[in-house]
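Hey team,

Filing this mostly as a record. A colleague (T.K.) asked me to run one chain through the structure pipeline before their review meeting, and I want the input and output archived in the tracker in case anyone asks later how it was produced. No errors, nothing strange. Just documentation.

Input sequence:
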Amino acid sequence: MPQRELAPTRIALLELGEERSTAREGYALLDEKRMMLAARILALLARHAEACGRWRAALAAAERALGAAFERHGVRELEIRARGEPGPAPAVHEQRLLGVRIPTVAADAAGAVGSAPDAELAAAGRRPPAAASPEAAEAAAAFAGLLGRAPELAALECALWRLADEYRRTERRAGAIEHLLLPELERDIADIEGALEAIDQEEAQRVRRARAGPH
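Output structure:
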């Protein structure tokens, strides 16, 4: 950064001292915010890992159920089974942490997707499946449960991205104060203090010479 031209006066020294105090307070606040963000990110990462584990377990169960339904009905009968209508959209709420909007969604907020009854298929001009079975019902329920877990996982990932962005911004601001602003202020204060000390010494010498009188 370019050096500032400051008059070596005590007023300038006081102003720089106040600026340094303000910068230190700002750095302390940013450092505290950085620690709070890091703690929340770590907590959400743990929740995200748990949610991913539940998602993988539900996906494996859904794949097994689909395999059993495929063995029972084959591709053709599974293709003609009606797809249910999606349920209502999940309710997304937002909390604020240090100015960051964090979305939250209940784990079971998504609506289930089921199969339409045979009467509805007939009214729509579509042939009902040849043989309804526990395997087909279990597969439908498993994938509906899998869909129900998606909003929670998406909200956690969105929250993590937002918190990470805010952490990076806070890190840059704290680093600018710590590595740029404060060292510059320390240099300016040291320069003015040195200049004032030299002025005081010159003044003291003039006073001593004046008291000594002409030789």
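Quick notes for T.K.: The chain is about 75% helix and 5% strand. The CA atoms of residues 61 and 136 lie 13 Å apart.
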